[in-house]
């Protein structure tokens, strides 16, 4: 009987891992589609139509939980701040990929867990010791290498990518503070925020689109919504500490899709920077998991 339960548990964990990998692939596909579209349409126009696509996915979820849940919000100021951050994240990402290869932009975003570790220390009272602070510092060095230490690192596309990744990290931290709020409610309000921002940004810059273009922009929202649901479900089936490192597959897919669809090949600095960022991030995940699951007396002391 115990063997049967162990097998079932193992299957659920495997299913969770596969869902995480599929969700990451869908996010990467969404990113590649976005890069293709921003070559012809404004970020604002894409945000508007993408938001309607997201509501196609969200509508059944909102109907299931009841529309009243949308207005029973914990900590409204933090909810508003999260909407602002998620909107900045998406808008700045599309602005960055309009000028930079996918792999370059995803390298900035792979530093998200490193930013989260640093931010959480100050805003979530999650103490981190010197080993993780050292990993945070090393991760920042990786970001600087990827930014190319020269005048180019202050170019607008690079700053868009860096700003978007910081907004993404703040979104993750705020998500932890608002974990009592239903996923559908969180995603619904961030979609409303993106819609409003898109309407403002698209004023005077709305272009006629073919049926294919409109379908692609709607698909952005549908694909992203599907990816959100897969990743949310995966976290209920498998431990977060096991799934978190799988998110670095986003970088692999960004390199593959960037080459296949746009002929982009990452240069040496992006490769070196991304390797440093990934290794620093994996160490932070490992150290947090070790501290959280192993008795403190058995863990080499680093302040936590």
Describe this structure in words.
- The protein has 304 residues and is mainly α.
- The protein has one domain.
- Helices cover 77% and strands 0% of the residues.
- It is built from 12 helices and no strands.
- The protein has helices spanning 2-38, 43-65, 76-97, 102-110, 112-123, 130-147, 156-177, 183-201, 211-237, 240-243, 249-262, 268-293.
- The model is unreliable at 294-304 (pLDDT under 50).
Task: Summarize this entry quickly.
With 304 residues, the protein is mainly alpha-helical.
Principal-axis shape equals globular
N-to-C order of helices and strands: HHHHHHHHHHHH
Q: How many strands?
A: 0
Rg, nearest Å: 20 Å
Kindly estimate the percentage of residues that lie in beta strands according to DSSP. Answer: under 5%
N- to C-terminal distance: 39 Å
Largest sheet: number of strands, sense, barrel closure: none
Give helix % range.
over 70%
Query: Overall pLDDT, averaged?
Result: 82
What's the topology here?
Elements: H1 2-38, H2 43-65, H3 76-97, H4 102-110, H5 112-123, H6 130-147, H7 156-177, H8 183-201, H9 211-237, H10 240-243, H11 249-262, H12 268-293
Helix pairs in contact: 1-9, 1-11, 2-8, 2-9, 3-7, 3-8, 4-7, 4-11, 4-12, 5-6, 5-7, 6-12
């Amino acid at each position: 009987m115990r063997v049967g339960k162990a097998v079932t548990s193992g299957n659920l964990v495997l299913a969770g891992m596969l869902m995480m990998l599929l969700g990451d692939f869908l996010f990467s596909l969404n990113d590649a589609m976005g890069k293709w579209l921003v070559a012809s349409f404004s970020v604002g126009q894409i945000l508007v139509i993408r938001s309607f696509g997201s509501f196609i996915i969200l509508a059944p979820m909102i109907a299931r939980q009841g529309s009243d849940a949308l207005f029973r919000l914990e900590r409204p100021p933090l909810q508003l701040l999260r909407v602002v951050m998620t909107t900045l994240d998406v808008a700045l990402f599309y602005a960055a990929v309009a000028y930079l290869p996918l792999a370059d932009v995803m390298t900035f975003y792979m530093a998200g867990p490193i930013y989260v570790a640093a931010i959480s220390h100050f805003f979530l009272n999650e103490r981190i010791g010197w080993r993780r602070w050292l990993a945070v510092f090393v991760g920042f060095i990786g970001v600087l290498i990827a930014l190319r230490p020269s005048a180019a690192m202050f170019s607008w596309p690079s700053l868009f990518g860096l700003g978007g990744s910081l907004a993404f990290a703040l979104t993750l931290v705020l998500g932890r503070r608002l974990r009592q709020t239903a996923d559908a409610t969180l995603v619904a309000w961030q979609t409303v925020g993106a819609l409003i921002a898109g309407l403002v940004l698209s004023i005077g810059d709305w272009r006629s689109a073919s049926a294919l273009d409109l379908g692609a922009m709607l698909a952005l929202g549908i694909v992203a919504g599907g990816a959100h649901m897969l990743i949310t479900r995966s976290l209920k089936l498998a431990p977060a500490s096991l799934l978190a490192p799988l998110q670095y597959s986003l970088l692999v897919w960004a390199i593959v899709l960037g080459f296949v669809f746009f002929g982009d090949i990452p240069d040496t600095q992006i490769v070196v920077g991304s390797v440093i960022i990934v290794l620093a991030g994996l160490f932070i995940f490992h150290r947090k998991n070790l501290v959280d699951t192993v008795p403190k007396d058995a863990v080499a002391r680093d302040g936590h």
